[in-house]
Request: fold
Amino acid sequence: MIEPFRSATYIIQKLEEKGFEAYFVGGSVRDFLLKRPIHDVDIATSATPEEMKKLFSNTVDIGIAHGTILILHRGNGYEVTTFRAESEYIDFRRPEKVKFIRSLFEDLQRRDFTMNAIAMDKNGQMIDPFNGQQCIQEKMIQAVGNPDERFQEDALRMIRAMRFVSQLDFSLQPQTKNAIEKNADLLKHIAIERLFAEFTKLLNGANKKHAIELLFETGLYKFIPGFSESKEMFLDCKNLDINQLSENQMWLLFIYFSKTESAEKLLRAWKMPSKKIKYLTKALPILHTRLKNEWTTYSLYQATKAISIDVEVVNKTIKKETVANVEKDMNEIFSKMVIQQRDQMDVTGEDLMKWFNRTGGPWIKLLLNDIEKAIVMNKIPNEKAGIKGWIQTCNHQQGNDY
Ligand code: ATP
Ligand code: MG
Reply:
């Protein structure tokens, strides 16, 4: 048994000693079979949360309504979930209440795809009633049971299918794909937060190009916030080498192609963190400019290094140029800049007030802008005496323009 399963075996053993069943399940088993890095180890058990809490001293209630507790052991936390059936689905969403059961088979049966419905016991033995291992071998995403019903129970599974296409570079089994086409409109019932979490994983995946193509082919895109009218965007993306793009670069490409009047409104509809919205809405006009013009040292400086890299990668992607050296080149350009940001200027508003013997006001901001630009453009050195001299030799002297 390899890590991180080995360290978690203690938990399974202890549950078994008390007569319960316990297995590794879900993503960790799938990733183990795929020889991919394993993130969190999930355990499923016949013990109820109350029974688990009696057995383990160090636990955290992280989702007790869904039967999940976190068991802390030797500095690690393990999510352990009681076998459950999700029988009553309302409104095409995951149910609020779940039924705890004692059967592993039923627990595996309520899982989304066969590759995610494999259990592994503490000796590494697979329990695979839905032939998930075969699907893994064939790199195929197949719903457990009737795909039509499964997507009607929880429509998020359709987007999860797409994110696994992207993340694992798998294909959709034809019936599963047909059922997505048929039930695509049910996606509108899904809370945006759940959608955003899966979509983010999709955008970070290795084969997002295939996933984006499938969003288009299945019509699922029509029910994704902000993209319902973006047929052109998906067609445009089809011809570009987008697998090399990061999550932010993908969003930038989307808002560029969506031709939306308000990128902010589109991104807000996704309930994205406001910091991310600010970043992307700052980057978009810079991308528009870059598509038409070359950078200048000052435009790069104003953009910031992070935005310059993202904009340049998207610019080159749209123009079908290689992006291999963008980061390296930008790092080099920025390392040669006299200053990288405003607070590195060797002058402050207070200095200016003293030099001009004037009180504060908007003139300070305007003058600082000019000085900043002159420093970045290498017209003056970044030191007080030089800055003062420069101001006095030009029109700035009286502060009249300000
Ligand atoms: P990741 O490596 O990204 O965490 P994962 O497969 O572990 O992938 P999770 O969202 O962590 O995905 O879910 C854990 C497991 O729970 C899945 O492998 C699957 O068995 C089950 N599952 C998660 N979401 C659903 C769902 N909407 N419907 C049915 N089963 C689900
Ligand atoms: Mg997981």
Notes: The chain has 20 helices and eleven strands.
